[in-house]
Amino acid sequence: MKLMVKAPAKINLSLDVVGKRDDGYHDVKMIMTTIDLADRIELELLQEDKIVVTSHNRYVPDDQRNLAYQAAVILKEMFGIKQGAHIFITKNIPVAAGLAGGSSDAAAVLRGLNKLWNLNCSLDELAEIGSKIGSDVSFCVYGGTAIATGRGEKIQHIDTPPPCWVILAKPAQGVSTATVYQKLKLDDVKHPDVDKMVQAISEKDYDEICDSLGNVLESVTLQLHPEVAMIKEQMKRFGADAVLMSGSGPTVFGLVRHDSRMNRVYNGLKGFCDQVYAVRMLGEREKLD
Ligand SMILES: C[C@@](CO)(OP(=O)(O)O)[C@H](O)COP(=O)(O)OP(=O)(O)OC[C@H]1O[C@@H](n2ccc(N)nc2=O)[C@H](O)[C@@H]1O
Ligand SMILES: Nc1ncnc2c1ncn2[C@@H]1O[C@H](COP(=O)(O)OP(=O)(O)O)[C@@H](O)[C@H]1O
């Protein structure tokens, strides 16, 4: 049996780190929303009792380091499944980019194998299982728009932002999330106003959303990768309404309301950066499989 599952990327409209924890993680308060840039996951059941991951992208591991592989193994062990699965990943989301590509692949595998193995888990149960794989997996199980707290695994769904274009530009080098959190000095950061962003979204106030964008990790990644600052500058210069780095970076996103402006920002950036995408904010919890 075969199943195709969609694994959309996320951006962080607001990302605050509120404290350091004893378990090596940080407590966060952030707003995440899905965009229509997605990996495609094809799942096929195997009679042989093994998990196989394949992808044509050389940056995607094909063994136990792959988060999608880990998702299949967790489900298999929890439910004593004696059947195997082949996971084929068509990678469209840039890797190590701050867009949760690996987490979304894992979440898609949880949703997909839940169906193929007839496990009847609710999304809440899958999100709980996903949190064991990575902090962003719980959000990716649901998609949509949400406030994430704890280490990112506590999800509260909120309204959908008003529609707009999201221009993404990913500098060549990837970023290690662990390194960025490690280098963060909580004493000298400017905390974004996450509640103001929640309010702006609920009022569908596009201008206020643009004014409220903020990411506490941005200054850390900017120091490690000065090209992120350059891309931010270019994006503003070409006319994006507001610009921010997503997650731990290095992808920069710009919000653009009007189609004509979108083309200008997209084409302008193409001259500076190989990986540029113009996508829509999905925002709403859609049926992902
Ligand atoms: C920064 C964010 C924002 O959405 O996304 P990305 O940039 O990775 O997309 C997330 O917090 C990333 O979540 P995720 O990528 O799932 O991280 P994990 O695999 O759980 O953790 C990787 C490492 O990051 C650090 N980490 C992660 C989450 C957190 N709340 N505090 C942390 O200190 C830990 O050192 C951990 O070992
Ligand atoms: N399915 C996957 N897709 C992409 N990267 C993966 C996957 N599984 C594990 N990884 C590893 O996870 C790391 C982070 O990748 P990714 O999830 O794309 O970035 P981010 O956490 O910044 O959103 C990569 O270095 C990669 O080796």
Automatic annotation (TrEMBL):
Pfam families (alphabetical): GHMP_kinases_C, GHMP_kinases_N
Class of enzymatic activity (EC top level): transferase
Domain of life where this protein originates: Bacteria
Classification via InterPro entries: GHMP_kinase_C_dom, GHMP_kinase_C_sf, GHMP_kinase_N_dom, IspE, Ribosomal_Su5_D2-typ_SF, Ribsml_uS5_D2-typ_fold_subgr
Residues that, per the record, bind ATP: P94, V95, A96, A97, G98, L99, A100, G101, G102, S103, S104
The keyword Cell cycle is annotated on this UniProt entry: no
GO MF terms, alphabetically ordered: 4-(cytidine 5'-diphospho)-2-C-methyl-D-erythritol kinase activity; ATP binding
PANTHER family: 4-DIPHOSPHOCYTIDYL-2-C-METHYL-D-ERYTHRITOL KINASE, CHLOROPLASTIC
Protein name as it appears in the record: 4-diphosphocytidyl-2-C-methyl-D-erythritol kinase
Organism classification: Bacteria, Bacillati, Bacillota, Bacilli, Bacillales
